Amino acid sequence: MGPVLKGFTERSTLEITNAGQIPVSFQADLSALQDTGFSVDLGLIKSLPPSHSVAFEVHFESAHQPPRDVDVLLPIEVTNGPTSHIRLCATVLAPSLELSKNTLQFSDILVGQCQVETIRLYNRFQAPCKWSIKPVLKRSYKNELRLNMCGSSNHLKLHLSGRGLEPRLEFSPPALNMGWVLVDSDGVEATAVVKNPCSFPIEFYSLDFEEVKMLEHLGLHPDGPPLPPAAVLSIVEYPEERLGPAGRVEPFTLLAPQEAEAPDMRGGSAEGQPKMGEAASRDSSAKESQVSAQRTESPQDSPTTSSKSTMESASMPTEFLRLKRYRWVVPAHGEVEPKVHFSTKKPGKFEQTLRFELVQTKRPYELPCRGTGLYPSISQDPWVVFPQWRKTMKEDEIIFKEYVESTERFHFGPLMCGKSREWYKAQNCPGNAENITILNSSPMDVEVQFSFENAGEAETFLLDPPSMALKPKQKQELTIWAYPTSPGFLQDKLICSVGKNPEPVVFSLCCLGVRMKLEVSPLELSFNKQFLHSTDSRTLVLRNDTLLPVAWQLSGLDDLAENFSLSQDNGAIDPRSEFEVTAHFRAGQMGSIEKTLQLEVSDPENILGIVQAENIKISAEVYNISLSFDMPEGPGGSLEFGTINVLDNAKHVLTLQNKGAHNIEYSFMLGGAGPRMRDMASHFTVEPKSGMLTASQPGVDVEMLFHPTKEILLKDKPILYCQSRLSVGMLTVSPCSGSIGPGGQQKISVECLARQEGTCEKQLYVDITGRDPKDNPLGIPFTLIAKSCLPALVEDVTSIFEDYPICSSSDLVQKMQSVKGAGLFVTDENRFIFSNIQVGREAEAHFSIYNARHLPCDVVLSIKPLSGEVRTGGQGGTEGQGGGCPLRAV
User: Fold this and answer.
1) How confident is the model at residue 282, as a pLDDT?
2) What's the pLDDT tens digit per position in 749-776?
3) Degrees, nearest 5: CA angle 888-889-890
4) Which residues contact residue 735 at a Cβ distance below 8 angstroms, ignoring those fewer than 6 apart?
5) d(CA 373, CA 350)
6) Phi, psi angle pair for 253, to nearest 5°
7) In the predicted model, what is the mean pLDDT of residues 255-273?
8) How far apart are CA 262 and CA 307, in angstroms?
9) Number of H helices, E strands in the chain
10) So what's the pLDDT on residue 448?
11) CA angle 76-13-11, nearest 5°?
12) Which of 73, 252, 246, 100 is nearest to 176 (CA)?
């Protein structure tokens, strides 16, 4: 096969001829070619005739063979004959080239010229070598060529370098930061230094202002007259405004140098000759100090010079004017100093790029300019101005001295009213004042004047000091007072007028005037009739419906009898909450009691003194039961009927008399005489069985008839009970006396008749004849408690109108604009408003009514016109569905 390059495949065709006299069969043993790179397409050959040949191809692949000589014998096995061998040989070679030089160094040449260098490639091997060049870029004017050889992983590198001499300029600084300038002022100036590092002079010009001046002299600038087309005595319309770069009003302008400083056609000047070397660096600091001193000077301060320059410019050729005003020639290793002016008519941040171009190569240059136009200003950030702030507030939430971002308003919150402003100031109330921070956020001195929007009728808000002078970044506290003289929502706006700034800074303020007051229920605590030695209690409810805590105190306790006591006689009630005071009474002696307590209301700090006084009456009547029994007594104080026949009868008369001051109800009951004689009603009859004993009246006769239906024997058996009723407040207990046999029981009934709202708690005592007197001398105590109430509904409007917005009349207009549902509820007017209802259409509103008590109640709903309003005819109007509906206890 000869030499074969690595990675390539060589092919060769061989023939096998039958040189014998008979046909032969043979095949090649291909296993001998394994891992040698050789392969043949010779299979089993059968009966090859004499003098005939068979051709086959031999392939050699060098991709997986190292560079070496490959020599292998391929056995050819003849059927029933000898084995012949074919020798296969190949030499694997790796391609390689050599360069005459590895680096090409080009000499300095001018831009636009070309230099050619030649290199030679050498192939030292017997096989040909294919190659290709691939450039590898690194940076300008330096390169690397890579020569790749087919079939070899090795490659050659050819390094190229050279330098082209091109005109270039250096701008210092690369960008002009003009800082800030006061809006509508004369502006500021800055100088850019343009250096030429080359050994030859370079001319450049401004693309922006060259174009402007060209259009002005051609009459195509928007500020200049139009040029008619090439026609004689033709009338044309004024051309449309050109909105190209020449038509834009930019805050940065390139100043033309003075006539003595402008370079002439030869690139030189008198006083303004471009500087070179150390002279340029020595004068740079002096020029910068002159530029900074020009911030407050106006470029229009010399009208005479400006007019003269304009007249002279008009008489000069356009080409000379362009070269004079907006072209510069920078000498070799020298510099020039163009000046840029910055002014603006409106505030904001401005960025503009001044464009320049070289005359020879048209290479562009850019000088970015940045500046800020400012008005004197103070910080409007509520997080800086106000010491306390939040993002939102809940509906009807009470907050104190906080700025709310969602309402964009500072809320003083609820404040007491009722006194004059001078009185509040004399008391030094810290809750009525707030210190806010006024920060000068601009880089210049500012003067601020403070006032209120309603300055003519300002009766609520005050401030101090009325004005401030602040240095840059300086801050000072402004004190604002709120003194409401009437209840309700009060608001105003703080106007901060900053000198030389047409837009004032405005902060909204508000407060809620609150009058201290408590709702008292009831105004009379009546304990009604109380049984001697009993106890009872009544509840006094104090409700604070205001938005501030309220202090209270009950006076006149020393005048109350010692049988009265209170759970608490003073305290403070939180906003929108209530407090219950329990009055306890113990009936120690009989008689009537009438006393008066005084409720005194004030603020918790007692700044205003007593703002409300309410008289609360307390009354009670104590009585005792005095019942006299007059009966014919037998042995041992019992009724003696003697011995009578069965079905006969005997009678005794008892006399009952009420010796007390109150009427007494009585009734008789027959009890059992033992386990075997429980039914005494078939043997005894009492007439009358019950009745009323009027106080201080003669007694009532009661007959007891004994008519046995069988033989019985009774001796000292307590079978007749006077079932007297004990009334204590709204409770009545019966019977209040009796006898219980061994193993027996007695049912006692307690009835409650509620005559007024409140809680009745009674302490009763059970006395047992013959018990140990040391154990509870007054009797075994047991307590009866009853609570009476009137049906009532929940009056919380947030629960009733939970599906609708709730607002006050002060916010009604704003809420009506944003409401999306059927309507909204106005709290201080106690009114629900249907909103945005089209004429002829119907709207529905769904209210939630809740039972506030523990008793079921029936509710009847009706809609009536307000007094003074005339209901119009037609089908319009408001209807309520449901009528009467029962509400279960919650």
Assistant:
1) 37
2) 888 877 777 788 877 778 777 788 778 7
3) 115
4) 667, 669, 721, 722, 723, 724, 725, 746, 748
5) 8
6) -125, 145
7) 44
8) 18
9) 8, 64
10) 95
11) 110
12) 252
Q: Which residue has the tokens 């308003």?
A: 409
Distance CA 635, CA 716 (A): 9
The confidence score (pLDDT) of residue 146 equals: 77
Residue 583, burial from CB neighbour count under 10 angstroms (0-12, 13-18, 19+): buried
pLDDT tens-digit readout, 840-880: 888 888 888 888 887 788 888 888 777 655 444 444 455 54
499 vs 468: CA distance, rounded Å: 11
**The two structure tokens encoding residue 461:** 């808000």
In contact, 275 and 334? CB cutoff 8 Å: yes
pLDDT at residue 216 greater than cutoff 60: no
| 247 to 187, 229, 279, 318, 349: CA distances (angstroms) | 21, 21, 40, 20, 21
User: Encoding tokens for residue 124?
Assistant: 């030292």
Beta sheet of 731-734, edge-to-edge order:
726-728, 731-734, 749-752
HSE (side-chain half, CA atoms, 13 Å) at 248: 10
Percent of the chain past pLDDT 70, that is, above it, reads 79
Contact at 8 Å (CB) between 501 and 376? yes
Contacts of 865 (CB under 8 A, 6+ apart): 871
Instruction: Annotate 465-487 with DSSP letters as a single string.
Output: -SEEEE-TT-EEEEEEEE--SSS
Three state DSSP letters for 178-197:
EEEEECCCCCEEEECEEECC
Torsion, CA 452, CA 454, CA 458, CA 464, rounded to 10: 0
Q: For residue range 810-835, list pLDDT tens digits in order.
A: 788 778 877 777 888 888 888 888 88
Give the Cα separation of 305 and 258 in Å (integer): 10
CA 15 to chain centre: 94
Greater pLDDT, 245 or 386 = 386
* pTM summary value: 0.48
Compute the chain's Rg from CA coordinates. Answer: 60
Neighbour tally for 21: CB within 10 Å: 7
Q: Of the ranges 139-143, 235-239, 344-348, 484-488, which one carries the lowest mean pLDDT score?
A: 235-239
The amino acid present at 764, given as its one-letter code, is L
Q: What is the pLDDT of residue 425?
A: 64
Q: What is the mean pLDDT of residues 408-431?
A: 78
Residue 521's Cβ-side half-sphere holds a number of Cα atoms within 13 Å equal to 10
